[in-house]
Amino acid sequence: MTTNPSLQLWLYDTTLRDGTQREGLSVSIEDKLRIAHKLDQLGIPFIEGGWPGANPKDVQFFWQLQENPLKQAEVVPFCSTRRPHTKAADEPMLQAILAAGTRWVTIFGKSWDLHVTAGLKTSLEENLAMIRDTIEYLRSQGRRVIYDAEHWFDGYKQNPDYALQTLTAAMTSGAEWLVLCDTNGGTLPHEVSQIVESVISHLSLVICQKPTPSPQIGIHTHNDSEMAVANALAAVMAGATMVQGTINGYGERCGNANLCSLIPNLQLKLGYSCIGEHQLNQLTEASRFVSEVVNLAPDEHAPFVGLSAFAHKGGIHVSAVERNPLTYEHIQPELVGNQRRIVISEQSGLSNVLAKARTCGIELDKDHPQARQILQRMKELESQGYQFEAAEASFILLMYEALDRREQFFEVKGFQVHCDLVEVKETTNSLATVKVAVNGKNILEVAEGNGPVAALDAALRKALVNFYPQIADFELTDYKVRILNGHTGTAAKTRALVESGNGQQRWTTVGVSTNILEASYQAVVEGLEYGLLLHFQAEKALKV
Predict the structure, then answer these.
(1) What is the homologous superfamily of the domain 10-275 according to CATH?
(2) Which of 54, 121, 194, 220 has its CA 20 to 30 A from that of 28?
(3) Distance CA 514, CA 543 (A)
(4) Do residues 495 and 386 make contact, with C-beta atoms less than 8 angstroms apart?
(5) Residue 346's closest CA among 316, 322, 372, 378?
């Protein structure tokens, strides 16, 4: 869908404040700066950087941004209204907000009478005075104000007259944006639509009765009912022109509205103008970048940006999508910087194999003698416990081998692993010895590790790095083990999945054996082999 410039929406990212309230998520100042600059490149107009009066980290963040400013985004500090029965001009936390040196500030205030009386323990009139005094003071200091109406929807449902009074107080005091917050995340889309429309009608009447600059409406939703994205879309269709959210939906409890879903829905489905097309196709990369910085595994099944968002597994699906992607894809994955993936598994048909070969630059047709051989070999191995759906790198190596195109970078002649339990320290030390042949030369190396797989991996790298220096950049990023037939006890088969990476790409390999070390060895060796394959393919492509 072509975007309509007249349908301009303003995105407001709160990953660096609301997003960091997610349990288990912590970021350094350097992390926050990296994410802010990535969001700036993505074209996000407003980036909420934190609460400078609440912790030293956020103070430092705003100071450092003054030295290395963003190129187009407005960075915004966040703070509450002044405390009851004080003056805004005497409020220390507001001084910290002013010291951040930004043009815009975001202030939140209470919309729900319950929070005013039970939380702030003050009167309803004093809460209105807190809103007015805070915004008027910030305006007098040359700041433009975004007002977040906290617990707006719950407050409106309990006492609509008072909730509307709080918005009127913010508007008449000079707030340019009034953001309606579903702080508890319990509102449903039909309620959001009705309430947003009621707010817009009310504010129009106030403006007619008392001429004042017309504010714009924003929406801030939480995902406690799995409705954050739907509620934000409902608000926009009812007249909201600012959408607040976080990358990957990070946030307290169940998270915030996910901008990685909202942006393409708004821009590609509804025709709103949010960011440039060249920025939209950076969305997947931005999602994965942020997940890496905050050290959380990406959600592979996330809409639009997940690894599986455009993955096709069933043979009928693959056959259809190869003829016409519209059969099983709601948008072109490239629009958001993602790509189609053909998944290989025991459910695969010949079309899966042919499509996967094409992604590797190999043209096969259904009559090619090796095509059915690859399919048959894959299904035989899966019946033994291999899982190529989760280990595409191993399948690609299998395919190259069937086509007699698998390069032998090295050959493992044998290995031994020795483990000692140190009772005093209650730790296990492992020692691995490997014998590897490279270009006809045998190398014997020894390495230690805190476990047998770590020791084996270290010994292999030590043996190979002098021949293949790029191995120094490879890292083992994940290791999973699963017992396949537990009823057989210690004789059960074990599946080992090893995820490796080189800083730009990640790949997964698999090994299966009744011996957990042998299964791990298979996966580790193929991980190194596939990494070398990627390196030399990229090197060859650069020369061309």
Answers:
(1) Aldolase class I (3.20.20.70)
(2) 220
(3) 44
(4) yes
(5) 378
Q: What is the largest CA-CA distance in the chain?
A: 90
SS3 state of residue 494: strand
Q: What angle do CA 187, 188, 190 make, to 5 degrees?
A: 125
Per domain, the residue ranges of the chain are 10-275, 311-402, 411-543
Q: What superfamily does domain 411-543 belong to in CATH?
A: Alpha-isopropylmalate synthase LeuA, regulatory domain (3.30.160.270)
CA 46 to chain CA centroid, Å, is: 19
For residue 441 the two structure tokens come to 């030369």
Q: In whole angstroms, give the CA distance from residue 349 to residue 372.
A: 9
pLDDT at 420: 77
d(Cα 221, Cα 138) in Å, to the nearest integer? 26
What CA–CA distance (Å, rounded) separates 17 from 62? Answer: 13
Which of 197, 252, 196, 250 lies closest to 219, judged by CA?
A: 196
Q: Cβ distance 35 to 70 under 8 Å? A: no
Q: Which of 196, 195, 240 is nearest to 216 (CA)?
A: 240
pLDDT one-digit tens code per residue, 282-300: 999 999 999 989 988 889 8
Structure tokens at 420: 């000692």
Q: Of 80-89, 204-213, 296-305, 390-399, which has the strongest mean pLDDT?
A: 80-89
**Residues whose CB falls within 8 Å of the CB of residue 133, separated by 6 or more in sequence, listed in order:** 81, 82, 87, 88
pLDDT of 64: 95
CB 342 within 8 A of CB 371: no
153-180 per-position pLDDT tens digit: 999 999 999 999 999 999 999 999 999 9
pLDDT, tens digit (0-9, with 9 covering 90-100), for 2-11: 556 568 999 9
Q: Is 390 helix (H, G, I), strand (E, B) or coil?
A: helix
Whole-model pTM over 0.85: no
Report the candidate in 61, 46, 52, 53 with the shortest Cα–Cα distance to residue 11.
46
CA distance 251 to 273: 25
Residue 124 C-beta-side C-alpha neighbours within 13 Å = 12
Indicate the DSSP class of residue 281. T
DSSP designation for 512: E
Terminus-to-terminus CA distance in the chain, angstroms?
A: 36
Decide: helix, strand or coil at residue 58. helix
